[in-house]
Specification:
By secondary structure, the chain is α/β, with parallel strands linked by helices. It has two domains: 2-174 and 361-380, Glycogen Phosphorylase B (Rossmann fold), CATH 3.40.50; 186-354, Glycogen Phosphorylase B (Rossmann fold, 3-Layer(aba) Sandwich), CATH 3.40.50. It is built from 16 helices and 13 strands. Strands 3-2-1-4-5-6-7 form a seven-stranded parallel sheet, sandwiched between helices. Helix 8 crosses helix 11. The radius of gyration is 21 Å and the shape is globular. The N and C termini lie far apart (42 Å).
Length: 392
């Protein structure tokens, strides 16, 4: 029986992985191991490891690595702490393969420890571009440490091969988040209001804004521009309500979350904020929203499947494939105002009836599972660089 170890460090990442985890745990030929780390163990971010356990999974190891700091030094030290403890966890669990999703610093620590521990690595969501964040470099680094690759689009598959990975190890399976939308029975709007204890009204926006980690000291200015635009909306004659999901544990994230809390305190009837909504409530909130706004990957990858507008602010997601439902704008009040006006217009929403999500494929988690089961990881460990040659 193959032991498949999945490392998760954030609420969003677990939400994407949960369907795959269910398939692994129910397969008689596989043993699922889960390591929870990063934000999952932080009271500041909602102690979301409890959600993993509530869903019926066993968390085999809880790895404390997140320092009470959002400075570059604090994040770097967190990676170091993660390396030490993850190496010990892998030595104890001895998995046959390590599954890592995405590009956060917790994933980087897991990949380094796994590589040095000679554990084959399967990486999800490689080959993507986010030119405004250091996630870009982390993602491509994890690709080079990995042995199996599950990309979310054909363009991303080509980019992983361009990085020197053999085509036979790279599989375009689509995005797990889009599969969740198609298969998860979502809440009705009334059920959602009851769950979150907040009346949503006719129109509301789902807002998630993260720091642009390759920019110096822009987080406060940019979130203030966004909040200024939202203030006008909440005080208009047809008040638009706001659901915030707070920023991840990234460099300069705390000022964003503090200002969101201040906004909600000043607008308690029109705004609400969550450290973590969980997959079901978050996707349900997205389904009924008038638009998704901010700079989260969910606005790019998942929102188009609901045929709703996404206002993508700034350069954090620069380079990702986009559906025509995405409205890009600069991170200043004037441009955000124009983007919101466009997103809420009848003309723009009429265009979205036939929008196609480039991240959508059938049976994403099933494909991943079948490939993991068939893989001969012993043969994958020693990689040759796949070279296109001088004519490329």
């Amino acid at each position: 029986m193959k032991k498949i170890c999945v490392v998760t460090g954030s609420r969003a990442e677990y939400g994407l992985l949960s369907g795959l985890l269910k398939k692994i745990s129910s397969d008689p030929d596989l043993i699922l191991q889960i390591i929870a780390t990063g934000m999952h163990l932080s009271p500041e971010f909602g102690l979301t490891f409890k959600k993993i356990e509530e869903d019926g999974f066993k968390v085999n190891k809880k790895i404390e690595m997140l320092l009470s700091s959002d400075t570059p030094i604090g994040i770097t030290k967190s990676i170091g702490l993660g390396l030490i403890s993850l190496a010990e966890a892998f030595e104890d669990l001895r998995p046959d393969v390590l599954v890592i999703l995405g590009d956060r610093f917790e994933a980087l620590a897991a990949a380094i420890a796994g590589m040095i521990g000679r554990i084959p690595i399967a990486h999800l969501h490689g080959g993507e571009k986010t030119e405004g964040a250091f996630d870009e470099a982390i993602r491509h680094s994890i690709t080079k440490m990995s042995h199996l690759h599950f990309t979310a689009a054909e363009e991303y598959k080509s980019r992983v091969i361009q990085l020197g990975e053999h085509p036979s190890t790279v599989h375009n399976v689509g995005a797990l988040g889009v599969e969740n939308i198609k298969k998860l029975p979502l809440l009705s709007k009334k059920e959602l209001e009851k769950e979150i204890r907040f009346e949503l009204g006719q129109k509301y926006l789902l807002v998630t804004f993260h720091p642009v980690t390759l920019e110096q000291n822009t987080a406060e200015k940019q979130i203030n521009s966004l909040l200024s635009s939202l203030t006008e909306l909440t005080h208009s004659s047809e008040a638009v309500k706001i659901i915030f999901t707070k920023a991840n544990a990234d460099t300069d994230s705390r000022i964003i979350n503090q200002l969101i809390d201040n906004f909600v305190t000043c607008n308690p009837k029109n705004a609400i904020a969550f450290d973590s909504m969980g997959k079901l409530r978050y996707l349900s909130a997205m389904k009924y929203s008038s638009a998704v706004i901010g700079n989260s990957s969910s606005g790019i990858i998942e929102a188009p499947s609901f045929k709703i507008p996404t206002i993508n602010i700034g350069e954090r997601q620069k380079g990702r494939l986009r559906a025509k439902s995405i409205i890009d704008c600069m991170p200043d009040k004037e441009n955000i105002n124009k983007a919101i006006q466009m997103a809420l217009s009848d003309d723009f929403n009429l265009l979205l009836k036939d929008v196609i999500n480039p991240y959508e494929k059938q049976d994403t988690s099933k494909m991943i599972l079948e490939i993991l089961k068939k893989a001969d990881f012993g043969k994958l460990m020693k990689k040759a660089f796949f070279d296109f040659g001088p004519n490329f």
